[in-house]
Amino acid sequence: MSKTDKRKKVLAAAASVFSTRGFHQARMDEIAERAGVAKGTLYYNFSSKSKLFSATVTEGIDEIIAKIRAQIDSDMPFAEHFRQLIQCNVTLYLQYSDLARIVFNEVSSGMDDEILADIQTARARYVDCVADQLKDGQRSGHIKDVNLRLTAVAIVGMLDNLCNHHLRDPSSVGRDELVDLLFDLLSSGLTRESKLPSNFD
Amino acid sequence: MSKTDKRKKVLAAAASVFSTRGFHQARMDEIAERAGVAKGTLYYNFSSKSKLFSATVTEGIDEIIAKIRAQIDSDMPFAEHFRQLIQCNVTLYLQYSDLARIVFNEVSSGMDDEILADIQTARARYVDCVADQLKDGQRSGHIKDVNLRLTAVAIVGMLDNLCNHHLRDPSSVGRDELVDLLFDLLSSGLTRESKLPSNFD
Amino acid sequence: MSKTDKRKKVLAAAASVFSTRGFHQARMDEIAERAGVAKGTLYYNFSSKSKLFSATVTEGIDEIIAKIRAQIDSDMPFAEHFRQLIQCNVTLYLQYSDLARIVFNEVSSGMDDEILADIQTARARYVDCVADQLKDGQRSGHIKDVNLRLTAVAIVGMLDNLCNHHLRDPSSVGRDELVDLLFDLLSSGLTRESKLPSNFD
Amino acid sequence: MSKTDKRKKVLAAAASVFSTRGFHQARMDEIAERAGVAKGTLYYNFSSKSKLFSATVTEGIDEIIAKIRAQIDSDMPFAEHFRQLIQCNVTLYLQYSDLARIVFNEVSSGMDDEILADIQTARARYVDCVADQLKDGQRSGHIKDVNLRLTAVAIVGMLDNLCNHHLRDPSSVGRDELVDLLFDLLSSGLTRESKLPSNFD
DNA sequence: GATGAATGAGAGTTCATTCAT
DNA sequence: AATGAATGAACTCTCATTCAT
Hints:
The structure is a homotetramer of 201-residue chains. Chain A has helices at 3-21, 28-35, 39-45, 49-71, 78-95, 97-105, 113-139, 148-168, 175-188. Chain A is an all-alpha fold and 201 residues long. The first copy, chain A, folds into two domains: 1-46, Orthogonal Bundle (Arc Repressor Mutant, subunit A); 57-190, Tetracycline Repressor, domain 2 (Orthogonal Bundle), CATH 1.10.357. Chains in contact: A-B, C-D. At the C-D interface, helix 1, helix 7, helix 8 and helix 9 of C face helix 7, helix 8 and helix 9 of D. The structure holds a DNA duplex (21 and 21 nucleotides).
């Protein structure tokens, strides 16, 4: 078995355990066991629990971003394109929900500053990816002149919270409903379409 | 000193420590020290670390909800009212940012299921509070027919992510900008103003 | 059982284990077991293995120094007094040989700098104690004008090496022989008595 | 590269690392790295860490002894000869201070008995070397009738402690001062020269 | 002869929890 | 009601040693 094999196995096991338990509750023992290697092997490949966590997050998020970029087809009408974007993000979020939980929900506290920075960088790359998608729409005149980065932050927040809501109780709301809501909200906001701005008060 | 006094002191200290360190990194020792009581006193008032955490979160979130409800003045034009709502939520989020971090970012993993349920209930109460605010707008015909609960979830997600973005680097984006973006996005979405809501005020 | 009791028990067990195994080979488990307390109790009383070691050495060496000072009777002819001094140091060294081994032989490497400094300070106190003894002899005119501190260092070196030699193989040399050699060497050196210093070549 | 080449490289690296860190703190990894060989090569040449340590010490001490024997010139007046002897030992001790630290200060505890015996044998060879030097002086009538082995033990003790004192704080005492003190002490002891042995009381 | 990835027993340390006072 | 000394299970990390190549 090659070096790469064990490293990959460890990363996969780490993603699984960190997602289930969170960083602090994850035990290196369990990761080793699930990877089918000895505990020392974890430390042979990653110098600490924090570094393993960091690698798990970074490599995972980059995989997701690559998939998003690969799945986008911009040669269709904007509305359809935009809906596809949302759909794609929702689908990947739900598919990688364990990783997503790590990246978006456990970044706040009690970790080495260095590692924290790595993870925030990974998060930022995802936000940038979303912002890039918006930029295309802005260039083509379909999206108005807003602070794209900030808007991307807001979108990711919605995505995160909505998807978690769905995951906590899948029966309460379907995946399609999530996509519809996001599309609707992002397209035209909350105000009644029939009510013209003139008498919006 | 009455029982209630010490209990309150403990809760205040717990809020402070849990906020700073997060649940798993918070130490009962530090909470006791900051509360100025012996460690045993913590266990005299709360049966476990989890219960103390739960109480901290629950009582904190209820305090915030009460403040939001108290600050809303619905006797003004809707647009102004809506903006005030957003402003109020942003302000309170930033003010209680430590508590917010706990409630919205560390709920996911590695905690007793029972406690987790308590905290998710507290979260749900906040979401309900936001949904209630929307409901008023819907009743008065200013907000269109959307799934309010889901929309509230989305809004809270945006709020959370945007405020954290601001807190991580206050110089990158001002508080007012947050409010403006939220108001704009929620009012009319991302599509160009030329598309109808042109004279939206 | 009072706090002091357990602390003392731990120190005694630590002295025993550190002496037998040396610092790096001593296991906290064994110290706890020998003290009849839980491992956590070690850390409740001493913040780390190093600190426990430091306390063991410091408190031990101070006990020895106190005994030396108590046993000296300076109201006798100098030669006798001097021999008594040597006898007293040899006796105490052999009696506290475990501690002595720690203080004089394991100070060199692989320890926290802070702790190392503590131990060197303890060593220095012992050297000072010997130097003080010499000073009296110098004041009374019996000891010539030499660098007392340096001489004390040399004497402690002899004492250490000779006593260890005796301890390694007690049958090869008796305790009295050690005292005699030290007395003879320190009194008049190695040169033949018949040869007066004047024509020493 | 021949087997002997790598073996020598390993021994040199081992001396360097063991000296700096001491036996227990030295890591095989670091020795291998410093030797520029793989870790397995260490075990290919030496069956264990202890054996490697033993070989390092034994070969090192023999090198020193050979140098001492080579540097002695006995065709000069005794006093000068004796001073030269002391000077030579001090100089070599300081030059090989790392090895000396191992041999004289870390031999006591926490090592395999077998290895411990090897090292004590090496020490004994050094003591014998010093004793041999004294024997010449005794044969020529310059040194009085003392237990030479024991005296050599005492001298090595002084040498060790004084040199370490110098190494810990070179500014406090110069190398020449060490030699002078040793020469003076060994020649005529501590008593005032004016006081003849006859009325030494 | 030489390698270095892999191992796993064992180390120091932490900290929520208990209970005699 | 309140304490805090004591606990011990659980944790991360180390490193001498092995063995397939």
